[in-house]
C-alpha cells in the first residue's frame, strides 16, 4: 500500500481486496476475549476532526486502541485552530509531538491531500472525509459489509448490482463507493433527482436513473444516502414530503426488493426522509453491521499503513 490513504484511487484492486481480507482476519481476532493486539504499540495516532462526527471518529479511536496505539483526539473547538492557526502550523505541531499517523476530517475538499502532499508530516495521513470529495474508509467498510452478507468472505464483488440512492451531489460516500464498487466488479446505478446529481456524473462510468421504482427487484444492494441539508443553500427539491415520496425507501418499496437484497445507509439517518423507520429496522437492513465492520476495516487500514505488510 501507499504511505497514505487519501482516495480509493490510491488502491489497486488487489490492494483493496488485501485490505478487506486483512479486515476479515482482524475481525475474527477481535471476537476473542482479549480484543487487543500489540501491533502498533508505541505508535501515536491523532484524530484531527474539523467537522462533527460520531461513528467515524469513535471507530478510528477504537481501531487504533485495539492495535495498542496511543490515541490523541484533537478537537478544533477550543484549540489554536479556532484562533486562526493554519492547517500547516497545526500539522507541524503534531509532527513535533511525534504523531505517526493523522486521521483527518475537513470541510474543504482536498484538505487531506494537501496535508500529505506538502510533506508537513513524516507520518501517514488517512482521509476520514474531505468536503464533498471522498470518504475512502467508509467505502471500504461498505464493500466489506456487502462481501460478508452476499459473497464468499474473500475476493471481489463481481456480478452484484448496487443502487446508490439520494443526495449524490453532496455525498463524499457516494463518490468513494462508486470508485471502489466498480473497481471490485460490481455494477453501480445512481438514483436521484437531477438537481442532486453532480454535473460531471456521466464521467463516473455508472448508470444514472431518476426513477426509484423501476426495476427495484433487480438490485442486490440498496444504499440510501443522507439528505445533507446542512450543505444545501438552495432548494434542491420541492419539499421533504415530496422527496420522501419519490426517493425515500419506505415499506412499499422495501416489499418490492428481491429476497437476498440488503439495505445500507452510511449514517446518520434522517428517518422518515430518505429511509423509513421500518426499512431501517427491517431484516434486510445491515446498517448496524456497517458500524461494527467499520472498526475492523479501519484496524486493517492502520495496520497496513503503519504496521507493515
Model regions low in confidence, pLDDT < 50 over at least 5 residues: none
Shape: globular
Strand content: 5-15%
* Average pLDDT taken over every residue: 91
- H/I helix tally: 10
From the alpha-carbon coordinates, what is the Rg to the nearest angstrom?
Answer: 19 Å
Arrangement of strands in the largest sheet: 7-6-5-8-9
Oligomer: single chain
Order of helix and strand elements from N to C terminus: HEHEHEHEHEHEEEHHEHH
Total domain units? 2
CATH superfamily of the largest domain: Aspartate/ornithine carbamoyltransferase
Number of beta strands: 9
Classify the secondary structure makeup into a structural class.
alpha/beta
Find the CATH topology of the largest domain: Rossmann fold
CATH class of the largest domain reads Alpha Beta
Helix residue percentage: 25-40%
In the CATH hierarchy, what is the architecture of the largest domain at level 2? 3-Layer(aba) Sandwich
Alpha carbon gap, first and last residue: 8 Å
Largest sheet: 5 strands, parallel
Amino acid at each position: 500500500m501507499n504511505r497514505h490513504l487519501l482516495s480509493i484511487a490510491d488502491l489497486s484492486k488487489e490492494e483493496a481486496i488485501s485490505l478487506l481480507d486483512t479486515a476479515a482476519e482482524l475481525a475474527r481476532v477481535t471476537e476473542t476475549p482479549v480484543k487487543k493486539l500489540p501491533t502498533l504499540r508505541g505508535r501515536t495516532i491523532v484524530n484531527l476532526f474539523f467537522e462533527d462526527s460520531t461513528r467515524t471518529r469513535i471507530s478510528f479511536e477504537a481501531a487504533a486502541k485495539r492495535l495498542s496505539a496511543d490515541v490523541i483526539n484533537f478537537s478544533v473547538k477550543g484549540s489554536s485552530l479556532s484562533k486562526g492557526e493554519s492547517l500547516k502550523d497545526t500539522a507541524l505541531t503534531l509532527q513535533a509531538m511525534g504523531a505517526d499517523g493523522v486521521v483527518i476530517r475537513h470541510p474543504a475538499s482536498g484538505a487531506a491531500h494537501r496535508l500529505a502532499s506538502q510533506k508537513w508530516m513524516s507520518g501517514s495521513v488517512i482521509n476520514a472525509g474531505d468536503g464533498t470529495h471522498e470518504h475512502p474508509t467508509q467505502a471500504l467498510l461498505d464493500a466489506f459489509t456487502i462481501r460478508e452478507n452476499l459473497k464468499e468472505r474473500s475476493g471481489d464483488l463481481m456480478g452484484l448490482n448496487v443502487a446508490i440512492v439520494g443526495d449524490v451531489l453532496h455525498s463524499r460516500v457516494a463518490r468513494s463507493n462508486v470508485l471502489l464498487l466498480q473497481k471490485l466488479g460490481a455494477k453501480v446505478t445512481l438514483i436521484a433527482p437531477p438537481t442532486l446529481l453532480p454535473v460531471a456524473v456521466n464521467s463516473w462510468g455508472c448508470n444514472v436513473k431518476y426513477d426509484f421504482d423501476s426495476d427495484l427487484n433487480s438490485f442486490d444492494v440498496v444504499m440510501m444516502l443522507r439528505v445533507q441539508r446542512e450543505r444545501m443553500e438552495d432548494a434542491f427539491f420541492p419539499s421533504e414530503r415530496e422527496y420522501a415520496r419519490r426517493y425515500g425507501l419506505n415499506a412499499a418499496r422495501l416489499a418490492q426488493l428481491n429476497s437476498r437484497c440488503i439495505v445500507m445507509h452510511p449514517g446518520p439517518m434522517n428517518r422518515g426522509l430518505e429511509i423509513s423507520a421500518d426499512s431501517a429496522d427491517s431484516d434486510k437492513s445491515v446498517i448496524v453491521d456497517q458500524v461494527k465492520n467499520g472498526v475492523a476495516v479501519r484496524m486493517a487500514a492502520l495496520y497496513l499503513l503503519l504496521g507493515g505488510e
